[in-house]
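Tokens help. One example:
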Amino acid sequence: MSAVDEKGEKFKVPTEVARIMKQWGGHQVKLAAARGSLPMSGVNLVTVLFIFCHGTDEELKKEALKTLKDLSPAILTTVCTRKETHPQILDLIAKLHYGNMKVMEPLLKHTLVSLKTLLFVAEHARGDVLDLLANNDTVINKTSALRTLIIDNPHAEKVTKLRLGWQEEVAPEAEPEPKVEDSADAALADDSAPEDEVNQSKYQQLLVMPVSEKIKMALTGDKEWRTLLIRESNKLVCSAVLKNPRITEGEVLMVAKSRSSSEELIRLILLNRDWTKLYEMKKALVEHPRTPLLDAMRFMTFLSEKDLRDLAKSRNVTQAITNNARRILMSKKH
């Protein structure tokens, strides 16, 4: 059994899914399946919905699309982590959930994700999802078009664009007329002028900087250096940024809010009581996927009812966090 996608290309339906679909007789049964009302595994459901989305029945297509949009991140994450998941299914999920970091993190790392999907994400994503793509050198180096789309993305941060080779345009300043008496001195100065290292962007310097120098700059550098170096893949470098005595609580909070921050960065934040006593920091750490569960649950006891209600229905945290938020809310009612 096969289906046809939006480009007219054939999609081979898995045997198990084909067997399930053959048992459906009338339109009403198919409609129930498109609405996610029939019992089947999450993987099979997503496959069925994909088939309906590319079918000729407009009602099934409409209901299947709605169901796919409303599916829980847990189901979609399971699909995106399966190595057998078809690239076309990954593409459809990306187009519907490109703003959901929990779904997009495994999807963008999938070995079968297509270039078409990556280009779509580069053009439309924002925040942590865009950062995740921009910092994946293996993917970015596939084609220069990815770099171009991210740089042109209005949601891309300046640091992200600099990392990809973007250069900020600076309006040329009008040169003042040289004084006659200074012309000889100017000629001599031209001969002895150093190379334009001073004006070289910090990102360009970073490209050729050895690890030892990066660590030193992470420990002592200004905010622009810290913003660049916190994204380094080397643990020693990015960890050194958090040990910089000039780092602000606002910068640390941004690290805690970024879902792409590593376990090591989260660990260092948890060790600093001055940072974790801040309410927004507690909230960010509860929501971060790499915060140890016991720490996250401990911080949840400090959160407001509004934030707990948001967590109780959030699709961007684990089920354990959602359940604990509901439990705390229930206990407050009694």
In short: The radius of gyration is 26 Å.
